[in-house]
Design brief:
By secondary structure, the protein is α+β, with helices and mostly antiparallel strands. The protein is built from 3 helices and 5 strands; from the N terminus they run βαβαβαββ. The C terminus is likely disordered. It holds the Pfam family Aldedh.
Length: 123
């Protein structure tokens, strides 16, 4: 006898991208992944935290994803909730060395007492 189950992935929401997808469907996957992170800055339950991409289409997926991110322009900048979150993300990016870059500043005020212009963080 089989019992149906639902498996929870620890609160994470992966996107699975398999080989054999048409260009239209692959572009749709890229668009959905970005939309769930850009809308509400990814702070809702359906935002994809990472993508598991079949190795056969990995390079193509990454190229399309990079193009889509660059096309977002200023909308790809993410507002940090507060100073502690900003410091945590900045420390993580700094640990990546020369393979990462970021800019800060943006004028968001009033979310927390310690908010200042540096709380806007673009990676």
């Amino acid at each position: 006898m089989l019992t149906p189950v639902t498996l929870e992935l620890g609160g994470k929401s992966p996107a699975f991208v398999d080989r054999g997808l048409s260009d239209e469907v692959l572009d749709g996957a890229v668009r959905e992944i970005l939309e769930t992170k850009v809308a509400k800055t990814g702070q809702f339950c359906c935002a994809h935290d990472y993508a598991l991409v079949h190795e056969g289409i990995f390079e193509d997926f990454c190229a399309r994803f990079k193009t889509a991110v660059e096309a977002l322009g200023p909308k790809r900048n993410v507002l940090m909730i507060g100073r502690r979150h900003y410091d945590s993300v900045k420390a993580s990016v700094d640990s990546w060395g020369s393979s990462a870059s970021y800019s800060s500043g943006g004028g968001r005020k009033g979310v927390e007492e310690d908010d200042d212009d540096e709380d806007t963080f673009a990676i």
